[in-house]
Structure formats: structure tokens, C-alpha cells
Write a structure and sequence with these properties.
Two copies of one chain form a homodimer.
Chain A lengths: L1 E10 L7 E9 L2 E6 L10 E4 L4 E4 L1 E6 L15 H13 L4 H17 L2 E6 L4 H11 L2 E5 L9 H14 L3 E4 L1 E4 L5 H14 L3 E5 L3 H10 L5 H7 L7 E5 L5 H9 L3 E4 L1 H6 L8 H5 L4 E3 L12 H16 L7 H15 L16 E4 L12 H8 L5 E6 L2 E5 L2 E2 L5 H15 L1
Amino acid sequence: MRTRFYNAKILTMKDGEEIIDGEIFVKDDHIQYVGPHKHEPSDFDRQINVNGNLLMPGFKNAHTHSAMVFLRSLADDLPLGSWLNDAVFPREAKLTKEDIYHLSKVAILEYLTSGITAVFEMYLTPDSIADAFGEMGMRCVQTGGLNDFSQSVEQMEDWYLRLNKKDEFNSFIPGFHAEYTCSEALLMDVAALAHKYEAPVWCHNSETKSEVESCKQKHDGLTPTQYLDSLGIFDYGGGGYHCVYLSDEDVEIFKKRKMGIVTNPASNAKLASGMLDVTPFLEAGIEMGIGTDGPASNNCLDMFREMFLTEAYAKIRQSNAAALDAAKVLHMATVGGARVMNLKDCDILAEGKKADIIMIDLKKPNMQLVNNILKNLVYAGSKDNVKMTMINGVIKYSDGEFYVGEDIEKIYEKAQEITDRLK
Amino acid sequence: MRTRFYNAKILTMKDGEEIIDGEIFVKDDHIQYVGPHKHEPSDFDRQINVNGNLLMPGFKNAHTHSAMVFLRSLADDLPLGSWLNDAVFPREAKLTKEDIYHLSKVAILEYLTSGITAVFEMYLTPDSIADAFGEMGMRCVQTGGLNDFSQSVEQMEDWYLRLNKKDEFNSFIPGFHAEYTCSEALLMDVAALAHKYEAPVWCHNSETKSEVESCKQKHDGLTPTQYLDSLGIFDYGGGGYHCVYLSDEDVEIFKKRKMGIVTNPASNAKLASGMLDVTPFLEAGIEMGIGTDGPASNNCLDMFREMFLTEAYAKIRQSNAAALDAAKVLHMATVGGARVMNLKDCDILAEGKKADIIMIDLKKPNMQLVNNILKNLVYAGSKDNVKMTMINGVIKYSDGEFYVGEDIEKIYEKAQEITDRLK
């Protein structure tokens, strides 16, 4: 299958902010050509006139819990404790792996509407999640949600070995929920697994002030990062989600271990956790991605919102409108995300890379007038501008229609049944 | 012209959060019926099957400078001083009233995509702005942008008398730019005008910390609100835009004078001004609206973003995920906005009210799963959910198409010419 996109503006993300006029050729799952207009009109199965709109790499949603879509708007505007203990945990306890399979599909549809081509997922049943993503044709890098009450290191080893070979859409990186939900014995086993496979390890880290404080109290003044690192968990890298309250010493550990950080600004606002200014991490050379977190704590799976908030927090925290350039945020949402997720071939648009490409509608009024397309996208863009989402060379979403091999009404219906049952 | 919307969910905003299943009949410019399904199939010029989607009052964008769309993304990520002095002011000095007419139209198109049916506008040439809104069929309440360098009280009196009679779309409320751009003599004249017509007066107020500090230095420790009130400007009410740094004493003045407040959270973030927690004002019973501010300082004209940020700021500022309920924010974005803009007939969906109605697509994945439609809308909604925007009984935008009596490509083209000329 060969596809030609022509008459396009192209933001490859290879050379910073540069946008070229040209064409992209896709063969099966990968990109064959990116560059200026080329006379090669024959030998294509389809030719798509981009009409001067923008082609760019898909967004990477670098932290999410997809199946939590069943909790969306169920118990908002509650204090965090009630939310978790009264609304989330009792319902999660009743979830089956089949439920999670069906619920994940609803989130996948929403990712497509936001131009998201890959997610970094953490939830309860990796096998059924991998099935949902594999069948719908979206990339999913999973990590363990291991804690004292759910999952085991043995299971995680099994997922690590199997899911990394499952198909072209799925992969697995070891991980655990967080310092505060895991015993030291369990964490030592995680460290042993990391050592056995020389593997990176990810977890929620320093999301709230109280998490950091209580870790310091338990562990002789050590922050979660210091404590976990002292156990050898990060000896082969990895990273942290949220990281709202890292100390300077923590940042040094992230640098030394070449670890990544994923910021989740909307979730941090909605759960009143705080505001992360990402600029010190970027200046320290730490690779960063942006994630929506789960749909119960955000509640939107929308990378445009996250990009704006990432900008907003830096500017407000520094009282400086020049605190963070839009290009850096767009890098985080695409290239940075791909790197922290170890999706080496999904970062930029270039020959040989995977064809994970989105088309941005530049004809909508929010992309007018044109002084700077990239800044228009970051500051004024919305889901409404996502005209097409292609993953692995296959168009999954175009002009509001889904091409996922299933009737979306049936996906909603099944997931709503589950939601109603769990109430 | 009689239109029947049937098979609808309806959020009238009359009774808080209640959503009913039913129908709406529109005759010419107003609503004839809102209620349960009614057997009256004949005598309609058109019958629209809402397919279970949501009808609700249009959003009121309660503070904007529409024509600034020519500055979008031109000079972002700059310190505020450079932004204003090097990018904004020199270009604004070259604007003609015809330029502003054409540029405003681009913003109007964007308002329609966000379900905005009325705006509270402040910019340089009220007559040509009123022409643009009147011709495009969108409601525009203008206020004066008067300051020491632009506009006069005589002009403002003329606009007040003429624009309030111009047509069904336009109205005018006296106003001035801000305390820091107006001499005391000018402000006294504004107060005299307010007294002559017993009229409310609006202005930018306490947007930044330095604005408040420098007012206090100049005026014996009086804040902008105290100083302006001491001149009699607010004797017949009015209100303030931004109001990020009001004191408790200021809030008392707002209460006493029955003044309104419009928050502009995205602009306050992008220009690094600060974060307003609106909850003390709401608790004080002050009527509040939400505005995007101009497209150069936001850069998006998107009420969904503003609603989320209004929530986010309250939750973060209070470190409390329960700080502000979604229903209150939706009230601000619709009913509250209409009230501060003096659009008495455009606040809710009820018999006799103006037919300013939007349709929200509930079938998009971000509106799934359904636990609470209102919270889905506020926390997860986006422009992508705006299926239709009707103003004054006329559908202006539907399924991505504009019905504004003009070719939108030509609107863009003309406005881009102006933008390029002013560079």
C-alpha cells in the first residue's frame, strides 16, 4: 500500500520549527519520502491532496489510565480523599479484564480525535489493554501499575517478555504505581527485575506535597526519588510521572540516571496538586513528555489543553510571559514523548520512520491569521483542528469519522453498560 | 420562520443543572416553546432532529478585543513590555476603521466555532466593529476603549446614543481602557457621562500587581477600584475585566455598586499576570462572566479553555479539588455573562427569550461515558463538540460550515492582506 500526500505544509519536528511545503510518501507502515514536491504521480494506491494544511508527527500522550473513562464526571468537585476512597477504588475493585478491554476502546477513540498516535499507559490488566490497542491499531507502551494490592513482579516479568513481542502496536516497560503504595520488599523485587533485564523503571513520583513529606518522614529525610534510587530501581534509567515537587537533588538523580519526566498539568489542576514549571528540567537537559493522566482526573484526553497548560504554568510560576517558548512545548508533546516512551521510530517525520502522521486543519478560524503556524497550533489549536490521524500507515480518523474496524456506537453502548453496572 | 428542534436533551440554565428531554420551537428571533415532547408536527418551516444531543444557551464571551486577531502569534513568548511596545502599539497605530471591520470578521467566525453567541467588545473603532457584527449577525455589546491617546468622551456619548439603537445585534455601555491610561480630568468626564445617563461603566481593573501598586502610589494608597469609585464613576454600576488583584475593600465596593466582574484566565496565564480564584466573588454574590480577552493575548477564542482554567485556578489556589463546582462555571459562561452584558433576553432557554441556542455533540468520545453531562461539558468539552450555533433564530454555524452570507476564504484573504501590510 503506497500513499502520497501532496500540496502539504510539513512540520517534520526534525529541524526545530521549520515548516516546508512538500509531499510525504508512505509505504505500508513507514515513511518513504518527505520533502519538496516531486514528480512521481503514478504507482500510488491513493493520492491525498492536503490542500495546504499541515502534516506533522502524531502527539504522544505520555501518561494515561485509559479505562478510567468509566469514572469520567462521576465524582468530580470532591476532595481528593473522598474521590479516591468513595468513588474510584470501590468501583475499580469490581472491574474485570474484559471491562477494561471495552472501556479502553472509548479512550482510544478520543485519542484519535486529539491527534494522539501513541500512549504511555498504566492500568490494571495489561493483557486485555494490549488486545484493545492492538485491535484498534493504536500504539500503546504499557508500564506496570504494581503495588501492594495489585499485580506482582512475576506478572510484570511475564508482561515484559510477552507484550514486547506481541505485535507492532504494543510494548512494555517495567513500572510500579508509586513509592507510597509499595512496600520496601516489593520495591527491592522491582529493582532486581530492572537489574535482571537492564531495564528502565517508571512510576508516579512526587505528585503531591504530602507524598514527598510522608516519604521523608518514613525514610530518614529521603525524597521519593532519593529513596527509590537508593534501592537501585533507576540503575538502568526510567522516569517519573507528574514530578510536581522534585528537589534540586532529585533533578540531579534524574540527570545522572538519564531518566525522563512526564508532566500532567490538567490533572494536577483538577486534583489541586499544584503547578509544575518544566523549564528547570528542560534546562537540565532532561527529556520530557506530556500526558493527560486518566480521564477521571482531567477529564479530557486532549493534548492541546495540556500544551497550553504546560506553557501557562511556566509563565505564571515565573511571572514572565517569555518563560517558555511554544516550540519547546510542541517538542515535548511529540518528540520528547516518543523518546521517553522508547518509540524510537515514531518521533519525527523522516524517511524510514513509522508513518504516525496527523493532519492539522489550517483553514479553521483559530489558525488565522497566519503570523506563525507553530505558535498558532500551540496557543490556539484545538481538537477541532485535527483533520486526520494516521497510525502505522493506516488512517484511523479523518474528518470526524473513525476507521477502527468497529461501529463506534457499539463501543459506546458496551462501555456504558459496564459503567452503569459498576455504579 | 418557525423551527422545531426535537429529540433533544435541553439544558435551559433556568433551573441549575437540570437537563430535560424535549423540544424547542423557535419563531423568528425568539423561543416560543421549551419543554417535553409535544405533538405539533405541522406549521414549521423546518424540523431539526437533534438526535439526543444537547441544546443549551450560547456562551457569552464577556471580554474581548476581536480585531487583534491580526496580532495572533506575531510576538508571543516575549516579556509583556516588549510585546506591547514593540509588537502591539506600533501596529495598532496603523489600523484604519476598515481594517478593524475586516479583522473583526475573522474573530466572529472563531466565536461561532466555540458556541459563542455574544461578545463584550472593547476596541478602537466602535462604528466599524458594529457594522461587522451586525452584518454577520452576532450580538456585540461594546464598551469604550477611551484613554488619553484614543477616543473621547464626546465620541463615547455619540456611540452610546447611536449604537444602542443601531440594530438588534449591537449595543453600547460606557467604558474606558484602565485607570493607568487615563488622566483624572478624563475620568471625571467619564463620571459626568455616567451621571448624565445613569449608566454603568466598565474598564480593565487590577489586571497586574504593578498596576495596583502604582495606582496606590499615585493616589494616597487607593486601589484602582477605590480611586475610580471615589470619582463617582461607578455610581450607576458597571464592572471590571480581569480583577486578578482586588482587595477585600474593593470587593465591598463591587457589592455595594452591584458591579460585575469578568475573569480572563487564559490571557492572565499567557501574559503571566496571575491566577484569579473567583470563588470569593461568587460567594459575595457578585455577578460574573468569563472572557477570552483578545486573540493576541490568549491566543484562542475558546470558552471551553476558559471554563477549565477558571476551575483550575480556584482548585490550585485553594489546594482543594472541591473548590468550585462545574455548574457555577457554566453559569458564569452563559447566564452570568448575559447579565453583566445587560443581555436580559439572552441568558436562558425559555419562552420569549431570544433564540441564541447552541447544539453540543454528545456522541463524540470526549462526552462518553455518561455519568454527568454537565460536568462532561465543562471538564472535557471542546470546540469539537459545537455542532450548531444559532443567533437570533438564525443558524450561523452547523457541522463545521458557516452561514454568514460571505465566503470565508475571502474574509481570511482580506484580513491576511491587512495583517501582512501592518507587519
